[in-house]
């Protein structure tokens, strides 16, 4: 899931913090929509103490901020006011996750790290398998391509939780941002995540707490079912040489809300590209 961001800053009233584990909590940005569900969850990670956010006048702990959200001044102010931001991490490039990064960096001076140099400022990009030590907590970075090529998940083993960005949403499924997003990569990512010990999912959209294994199993079953349905449709229409993605999307997603049609088309193209890669169709057209 991803949302496009306006070039103008969106100003909104901050919402309530949700505590998700001893070392994590999130504040949802005011950007609800078809692709963002209730909005983007901005996480803080650190030695948060018994009360979060801290009471007025109490010492503010050091925190790592994950996915500062869309361009929203009030949201950035609320996050910066809650703790001493020492590091900003990005799970991937979409603007509903990164739009506030420059603003929060300006407010706090904290470096920004994502998977690519383009996402990073004041520090090196993240590396697969890297242990990020900051704010008295260790986060284990995992490269998890599929939704986008630069998607990253972050494990906090001390709490048995994993921050999954859009790779594993809190409800529903995620889009594949073709051509950057890739179905084969996504299937591999889900299978690899299922191999990790039992962790609770802290997603960038939707409620937290689902078992990582169960969530990945659900998403894997969904994707494999959709591929099977697409194969059957292509065979039934004898359109398995070079089908039109646009025509298929119109017939499959005719009743899909307008706000999600572009994302549905991208995911469909990722499915068709997968069938090309494994030799089941020769190609497809737009």
Automatic annotation (TrEMBL):
Q: Which InterPro entries match?
A: Metallo-B-lactamas, RibonucZ/Hydroxyglut_hydro, Sec-metab_biosynth-thioest
**What organism does the record attribute this protein to?**
Rothia santali
Q: What name does the UniProt record give this protein?
A: MBL fold metallo-hydrolase
**Annotated Metallo-beta-lactamase domain residues:** 39-205
Which Gene3D superfamilies does the entry link to?
Ribonuclease Z/Hydroxyacylglutathione hydrolase-like
Top-rank taxon, per record: Bacteria
Q: Which PANTHER family match?
A: ENDORIBONUCLEASE LACTB2
